[in-house]
Amino acid sequence: MERRKTMPEIIVERLKEAIINGELKGGQQLKQDEIAKSFNASMIPVREALRILEVQGLVKFYPNKGAIVSELSVEEVEEIFDIRIMLEKGALVYAIDNLDNKDIEYAEYILRKMDDLEDEEHLSELNLEFHNVLYNASKKEILLGLISDMHIKVERYMRIYLLNMGFHQASQYEHYEILEACKNKDKDLATRLLEQHMESAKQSLVTFLRS
Fold it and tell me: Where does the HTH gntR-type domain lie (predicted)?
């Protein structure tokens, strides 16, 4: 049977989605008493949830202000994507030789589902799932954990990139190219395409945020 979620997990899930979809804006104060009341919870799980969101980069704590939703930041985008490029290229190098036909077919299935999708939440989820199918074959659990942490930090930026900025079609084309290189076991081409894919997303987001 599926484990029931704890109250901190429930609060994290709902606040995270509200931050990522823009319902809670960058710079907005998160009043712990109001959150506790809305979830019919005590202050303890609220504090625990906010600390988890802080680790994920979605919330910051300030003296005399408490918890504040993190602002979208050019510097953060650049740093996260630079770290992602290093980690994910490494994971792909480890993974390519282990990718089998089942992995490739499932990755293709995900991309076909993404082709005509216009729901930013599910598009973001499928985008992550596509990349994870490729990287999971690396069987490097620590590396995969670090990549997962970076994906959490970048998710709200990726929703802006994939739909709000109209780059979904270009991103899909790049995904198919990466997958073809993986299918052919061409590590050099696959990692080069992956780096170009993420550099393109980074530069587009930086331009958007600066404007």
Answer: 5-72
Q: Is 67 helix (H, G, I), strand (E, B) or coil?
A: strand
**Coil, strand or helix at 65:** coil
Rounded Cα distance, 183 and 111, in Å: 14
Q: What angle do CA 159, 163, 169 make, to 5 degrees?
A: 120
- Segment 62-80, tens digit of pLDDT: 988 899 999 888 999 999 9
Structure tokens at 112: 């076909």
Q: Hey, where are the domains in the chain?
A: 7-69, 74-210
CA–CA separation, 81 vs 87, rounded Å?
Answer: 10
The Cα–Cα gap between 155 and 161 comes to: 10
| Dist CA 168 CA 200 (whole Å) | 12
Q: How far is C-alpha 42 from the geometric centre of its chain's CA atoms? A: 30
3-state secondary structure of 179: helix
Which of 163, 162, 136 is closest to 147 using CA atoms? 136
Phi first, then psi: what are they for 57, rounded to 5°? Answer: 85, 10
pLDDT digits (tens, 9 = 90+) for 16-44: 989 888 889 889 999 999 999 999 999 99
- CATH numeric code, 7-69: 1.10.10.10
Sheet with 66-69, edge to edge strand ranges: 29-30, 66-69, 59-62
Identity of residue 94: Y
